[in-house]
Amino acid sequence: MSRRLPFARLAACALLAASAAQAQPTTSLAQLLAALPEPPATPEQAASWVDGQGKPAHAGLLAQRQAMEAHKAAANRLLAGDAEAARTQTGYRTEALGQGMADIGIDMQRMQSDPAYAAQVQERLRRMTPAEQMALAQRMNAPMQQDRRITNEARSMAEDSPAATAATAAYEAGQAYSQAGAFTERRNREARLWQDAEAAVARVNARRLDPGLPKPRMAYDNIGCEAGCRAQWQAYADRMLPLMVARETEVLKLRTAALRKQRAWLAAELAPVDRHLAATAFGAGSTSRVHREQIVAYDVSAVGEIQALHDRLAETVRQAAVVVRCGKQAVLVPGAVCTP
């Protein structure tokens, strides 16, 4: 049996390594960010990015979303494996604790169900000297220390790979940095960027469009708007729609500039994170469950930043596409058909 044990351990390690390799994300943060398409240049292009309901239909945008979801799913599989291992470890520890308490004459189950018995045990412990209490604790903990099934997490953390230790330190430093106000400042910087962009958009939208024709007095969808009235509306729409598209083109350029700036900021922020995560195979290369949990949290948080930019782009495209998708209806009956 002694000769078989090392082989069994090697086989178990190989299985764990294979499982981790299958679970780990296969795309880096830089790849996920690079997969985000450049915004469309015109409202006409934006209209081709959405379906009939205004939902994203652009192949690149959908592929990037799918890649992010696959990345997060792989990260969650790592955590799920750790959660199962943690439950198993809890079972081992409970079993060893019960054995240890039995070795010093304490019935653990009775302690939990019999208040009188629990009081007796507590009184017994209270009457002991500190030296006696220490000796009793050592006897009680002996089964847990001797059980090879139980992982010493403190040792796993201490003996983890340098890359995993560095990634964990970077995560903890990032947490401390965020708590010191850096995260709020980053969010405020992004908020200011988009406040300025939307203020510029509001100024563009506030400018009066002059199609060179008077707007018909009667609403197009009024029951009294007959042939002559409808002809006036059609002529008005022929002049007004190109002006509206040109305005949307200007708005799209303003939002695209903000998107590119936010993307550049994010690329710079993610570069050091990406290096740490890649060095640990996104947590799969860590031998410590505690470290792996922190590394995966680091990863998922970073992917969330990329997803926020993705969502911002999708919304920018949706808004830019409205007028083109609606065509003349954006002029004739905008409230009924073309509400963004």
Q: Approximately how much helix is present in the residues?
A: over 70%
Measured between the Cα atoms of the first and last residue, the distance is 72 Å
Contiguous helical run count: 13
Radius of gyration: 32 Å
Low-confidence stretches: 1-21
Large-scale geometry: elongated
Reported for the largest beta sheet, the result is:
none
Q: Strand-residue fraction? A: under 5%
- In N-to-C order, the SSE pattern is HHHHHHHHHHHHH
How much is the average pLDDT? 81
Class computed from helices, strands and strand pairing: mainly alpha
Say how many strands there are: 0
Short description:
By secondary structure, the protein is mainly alpha-helical.
Describe, in plain words, how this protein is organized in 3D.
The chain is mainly alpha-helical. The protein has 13 helices and no strands. It has helices spanning 4-23, 29-34, 43-47, 59-103, 108-113, 115-127, 130-146, 153-158, 162-206, 227-279, 289-326, 329-332, 334-337. Helix 10 runs antiparallel to helix 11. The radius of gyration is 32 Å and the shape is elongated. It starts with a helix and ends with a helix. 23% of the residues are buried. The model is unreliable at 1-21 (pLDDT under 50).
Architecture blueprint of SSEs:
Elements: H1 4-23, H2 29-34, H3 43-47, H4 59-103, H5 108-113, H6 115-127, H7 130-146, H8 153-158, H9 162-206, H10 227-279, H11 289-326, H12 329-332, H13 334-337
Task: Record keyword descriptors for this entry.
340 residues, mainly alpha, 0% strand, elongated, disordered N terminus
